[in-house]
Structures are given as C-alpha cells and as structure tokens.
Design a protein that fits this description.
By secondary structure, the protein is mostly helical. The protein contains six helices and no strands. The chain has one domain. The longest helix has about 30 residues. It is elongated. Pfam families: NADH-u_ox-rdase (PF10785), NADH_u_ox_C (PF12853).
Length: about 190
Amino acid sequence: MASDHSSVVVPPKRVASDYPLIDSDPHLRRVFGYARPNDYAVAGAAASVSPIAFWVMERVSPSHVGRGGFSPVMRLATAIGFLGGLHVLYQRSCNRFYGFTENSREVEMDMREMVDKVKKGEPLYGTSGMSSYLQGVAARNSRYSGLFLHVLPWFNIVNHDQHGVDTAKYYQQAERELEAERLGRA
C-alpha cells in the first residue's frame, strides 16, 4: 500500500509567549526585512567587539609578529565579529517573530504585508517549485530554528504555507478593507 506524502502536515507546537506569534518559521528575507534600526545598531556594536578587543590586546601585550602577522589575524577577528553581528541581528528579529519579545511593530507590518498580498491575489508566503511534501519537510526542519542558531546555522529559504498561524485573519482584514473602499466610493 503506497502512502501519499503530499497530505502530511505536522502542525507546529505552540510555544507559550507574552506576545503574539507572527511566524514560527520566518523566511530569511522577512527576518532581515523586519529587523528594527536598533537591531542593526546592536549588531554593529556586537560585530565591532572582536576586532576592537584584538586590537586592544595587541596594544596591551604586543605579539611582536611584525606587520605581516597582525593583518591576517585582524581580518579574521573582523570576519568573526561580522558573523557574530549577523547572528545577533537574526536572533533579535526572530525572537519578535516567535513572540518572545515585544513585537507590535512587526505584527502591524505582517498584517499590512499579508493583507496587501490577499488584495492582489498573491499567495501569502510566495510560490515554490517544490512539491508540497518537500515544502513540509523544509518547514519541519527549519521551524523555530532561530532558537538553535548558535549551534547549527539553519535558515528558512523555502516558500511554504506552514507557519503556525491562522491565515484567516488576513483574509478577514482584506474583506473589511475592500468593503470600506466600496462604501467610500459609493
């Protein structure tokens, strides 16, 4: 007896949080797109710690490797700092998607983005060339992956419709807005 994998949907577990869940598996573009300016400032500060610390250590206790030895290590320290800054930025933005930190701005942005897509007749979370089964596999593998990012960098880069939220709210809001537009024109 062959099984039909296309109908397998594993609902995401709801995690208790103080703020509303926006998306349990946000796409990489949305995570960076919804990041706040202060996230970029904190990420920049975090990224600068590694090269500044290395420079200070070199000044306090010189390694005496000469000009050719300091530069490659300083470039490495800068690269490590840059990756650390990206990690901080991604984590702060993901925490808002998961509802772990205050996210009223992101809730409004999400509602506006999704309602606009409904009005245009576009799929909410984009289109994908993958089968629905593989989209489900991708969703299950990357759901809440931002919580384990410090151990295994894993991002959602797949468009799928399994995000742990009831999408009916977007359609209801779009209907209300379209009705208000019709009444306003009449």
